[in-house]
Amino acid sequence: xxAEIKSNTNTVRxxxxxxxxxxxxxxxxxxxxxxxxxxxxxxYMVGGAIxxxxxxxxxxxxxxLEKYRVKATFFVLGTTAEKYPxxxxxxxxxxxxxxxxxxxxxxxxxxxxxxxxxNVRRSAKVLEDIAGVKICGxxxxxxxxxxxxxxxLAEEGLAWDSSLLNDDLPYLFETRxxxxxxxxxxxxxxxxxxxxxxxxxxxxxxxxxxxWNNELDVLYQESEKAPRLMNLSLQTWATGRPATLRVxxxxxxxxVGHEEFRFAQCNEVAAWPLNSTER
Amino acid sequence: MWNEKGYRKSFRWPExxxxxxxxxxxxxxxxxxxxxxxxxxxxFDYSERxxxxxxxxxxxxxxxxxHGVRGTWLIxxxxxxxxxxxSRAVQKAGHCIAGHTYAxxxxxxxxxxxxxxxxxxxxLVFEDLLGEHIRGWRTCFxxxxxxxxLLEHSDIEWDGSMWNDDLPSLIEGHGREMLEIPFATxxxxxxxxxxxxxxxxxxxxxxxxANPPDFMLRGLKSAFDALYERGAERAVMMPLVxxxxxxxxxxRSKVLDExxxxxxxxxxxxxxxxxxxxxxxxxSGEFGRE
Lengths: 279, 290
Known about the structure:
heterodimer, A: alpha/beta, TIM Barrel, five-stranded mixed β-sheet, five-stranded parallel β-sheet, 10 helices, 10 strands, 42% helix, globular, B: alpha/beta, 9 helices, 15% strand
C-alpha cells in the first residue's frame, strides 16, 4: 500500500514571484453519478440537473475562463467524454488541462484491483482517443478511494492524484512503483456543497461567495509566512449555472491581474514541490 | 447513583466577569468518521476530517494565540497517540487540556465496563504522552452511566458532557463531587456543519450538510448578544464548541477570528478554560441552596 512520505510540507517553496497559487479544478460529468429511480429508471430531476453541466454548464464556464484568460483543470468522466466529445475537445483547444476521474462513475472503494486498474486504463484511453491527451492525473469521482488507488495510478504512469482532502499543500506518497504527488482539495469550499442539487443546498450563491472570499482572505494572509495553495473543486453542473457563474466571475475579478496570485494547473503544481524541496 | 445540585438564581461570577466564554476545541480529527452502508469507514469523510490534526488544529491554536485567548482542548486519546506534536503545542501554549474519550466512541451504546475501560485507557494516554493528569472530560454521546463512572472510577474534577443547562452544577456521588459544566448547540456543528450527528452522514455527492460562514458568524454573534445582555443581571456563560476539522478550515477559521474581534470589544467578556470556570463555580458556594 502507498505510504505517505513524512516531511515538513511547510518547507515547500513556490517558484519565485508566486505568493498564492490558485487552482480551479472542474469535475465534468453528465449525470452518471445521479441516483436512479426503482427499477433502474432514470431520474430526470437529479440526473437532469447534473446533465446540465455537459449540455450547457461547461460552455458557460469556458466562456468565462476565456474572458479572464484563466487556465484550469478539468477532470472528465470517460462516459461524459464519449457522449459530449466536443466539450472536452473545446476545453483542450482553449489550453485547459484534462485529467481522469473514472468511467461511468463506477465506485472503486470495494472494487478488485483488476477492476480498478481497468477503470483507470479505460478512462485514459477514452480521453486519449477523443481529446488526444495523455492524462497525468486523477480524481476519484466520489473521492472514495480504495487502499490500492495510489499504487495503481502510479503503476499506470500517472504523476499525481487529487482525491484526498486532508491538507493545505501537496505532498508525496511512496507507492509500489514510484513516488506520486497528492494535491489535496476539499468539498468544504466546493460549489456543490452550497448551491448543489439535490438538497441540501444551504447558502446559495451569496453563501458560496462568503466561503470563497473568506478562504482567499485567510490563505492570502497566511501565505505571507508559509506557502499556501487555494484549490477549488467545482462541478460543471453547479458552477455552470448563471447564478453561480457570477460568483466565480466575482472571485476572478479579485484575482486576475494581481501578480502575486497565479492560476496553476495540477500538472504544473505536481512538478513544483518535487523540484523545490528536499524530502 | 449521583445527586445533582443546581445553582441559585443569585449565582455570580467573580467581580468584573460579565460573560465568560469557554471555547472548547474538539481535537478529534478522523476519529468519528462516518461509516459507509457496509460498515467500513467512508474514505471521503475520513480524509476531510483528517485535515483536523494535519492542519486545522494548528490554525486554531494560532488564532487563539494571536488573540491571547485561553480555552479548553478536548482531545481524543487516539488523536493524541497519532498526532502527539499537536497536543504538546497545545500544552505548551497553556490551554486547559481534557479527555474526549479514546476514539470518539458512542458511549450511549456501550456497556458500563467498556466505558470505564475506555475512560481509564484515555487517562493513561495523557499521562504517558503529555505527562499530564487530566482533570476534565467530555463525552459528546454520553450514556446513562457516564457521570457515575467518572465519579466512581476517575478523579475527574469537571465533566462537560451534558447539554441540559445554562450554568454549572455540582454532582455528588460515590463519596466525592465534581462539577458538570454543560455545553450548548451554539457550535460549529450546529451553525457550520451537521457532521457530528450520525443522522447526517455525507451526501451521495460527498458533501457535508454545511452552512456558509456568513450564517455561522451571524449565529455566534446573536448568541453572544443575548448572553451579554442577560449577563448584566445574572451569571451567564457562553460555551463555544469548535472542531479541528470544521472551524480549522481557512474560510471557517475566519468566523472564529471575526467573532473573537467582536466579542473582545465588550467589557467584562473573559475567555477562559473549564478548569477556571469549575474553580469559580465552586468558590461561589452557591450550589443546592434553592
